[in-house]
Amino acid sequence: MNKPAPIVLFVYNRPWHTQQTIEALQNNELASKSELFIYADGAKNEKAYTQVEKVRSYVRAVSGFKKLTVIERDKNWGLANSIIDGVTQTVNKYGRVIVLEDDLVTSPFFLRYMNNALEFYKSEEKVMHISGWNYPIEINALNDVFLWRVMNCWGWATWADKWQYFEKDTDKLINVFTNEDIYKFSLDGTADFWKQVLLNKKEKINTWAIYWYASIFKQNGLCLNPVQSFVQNIGHDNSGENCSKTNSFFSKNLSINSDIKFIEKIAENDMALERVKAFYKFNSRPYKKLIRKVLKLLFSNNKK
C-alpha cells in the first residue's frame, strides 16, 4: 500500500458525537500512519458557541494519528461550504482524500478499505467515488463490493482528477438535465433525488452532496459501494437539523472484512441497483415516512 490518504473530518457543535467518531477512527489500524485534518466550523449564534468551544477543545488534543491539523473557521461557513472548501484544498494538495463528518462511526477496517480502493481504482476513469456505507439491502449473490451510479456521502473518498469535475451551479444543472436524465438520476423514478436540486434552487436548503452526485452522473461515472457498511451514522437523535430519531434503521453491524475483493469489471451492477430501487419502492405504510427521511438525510447534509 502507498502512503495512506489524508483524512478530512468536519465538526461543529456536537462533542459526544465527535468523540465517538474520533475514537472509532483511532481504532483503525492505519490511523497512526494517516494525517488527519479537522475543520471546525464557527458558531452560527450565541446558543451554539459553548458547544462549538467544547468540540474545539477536544479536537485540539486528539492523538493517535501521524499528524493532526485543526482548521478553526473564524465564522460559520455552514457544512456545504466547509466541505467543498476543505475537500478541494486537501485533495488538490495530496491527490486523494478520505472524508468524514462528526456523526460517523467507522469499522476498524474502514481506512484499509478506503485506501485499498483508492489505489485499486486510481487509474479507472469511470470510477469517481468510494462509498463507505450501503443501504440495508439483501446481499446474497453480491460480491464484496459493487459499482453503481449513486454517490453515498457517509464516509467517502475520491481523487483530485475526479473531484475536478465537482460543480455547484444550480441553474446550469437545471438547464442541462433532460427529463430522461432526471429519471435516471432519480434511480429510474424510484427515488426523488432531483428534488434536492430544486430545493437548493428555492434556497430552502444549501447542500453539497447532491451536486457531487450530479457531477459524477454528468461524467457517466460510477461509485464503489461495499455490500456491508464500514460506517454507521449515529447522528439521527435530533442532535442536528436533519437528524431525526431513526437510529434503529441506520444501526447495523459494521464490516470487519480486512480483505475486500475488488472487482475489475467496470460497469453498473444491475442486481445491486434493482435491490436499492426495491428499497425505495417499498410502500408499506410504516416505512413511507422513513424512506422520505432517508432521501433527505443522504443528500441534505444541512446540519448547520
Describe the 3D structure:
The chain is α/β, with parallel strands linked by helices. It has one domain (7-300): Spore Coat Polysaccharide Biosynthesis Protein SpsA, Chain A (Alpha-Beta Complex), CATH 3.90.550. It is 40% helix and 15% strand. Strand 2 (35-40), helix 2 (46-60) and strand 3 (67-72) form a beta-alpha-beta unit. The longest helix is centred in the N-terminal third of the chain and has 16 residues, at 79-94. The protein is globular. The model is unreliable at 240-251 (pLDDT under 50).
Summary keywords:
two-stranded antiparallel ribbon; 12 helices; 304 residues; Spore Coat Polysaccharide Biosynthesis Protein SpsA, Chain A; 15% strand
Question: How many DSSP helices?
Answer: 12
Strands, total number: 10
Query: What is the name of the CATH topology?
Result: Spore Coat Polysaccharide Biosynthesis Protein SpsA, Chain A
- From the coordinates shown, what is the CATH architecture? Alpha-Beta Complex
Report the biggest beta sheet as strand number plus sense, adding barrel if it closes. Answer: 8 strands, mixed
Rough outline: globular
Return the domain count. 1
> What is the highest CATH level, the class?
Alpha Beta
Low-confidence segments, given as residue ranges, are: 240-251
CATH superfamily: Spore Coat Polysaccharide Biosynthesis Protein SpsA, Chain A
Query: Which band does the percent of strand residues land in?
Result: 15-25%
Helix content: 40-55%
Structural class: alpha/beta
What is the CA-CA span between the terminal residues?
37 Å
Strand order of the largest sheet: 3-2-1-4-8-6-9-7
- Topology pattern, helix = H, strand = E: EHEHEHEEHEEEHHHHHEEHHH
Radius of gyration using CA atoms only: 18 Å
Mean pLDDT: 91
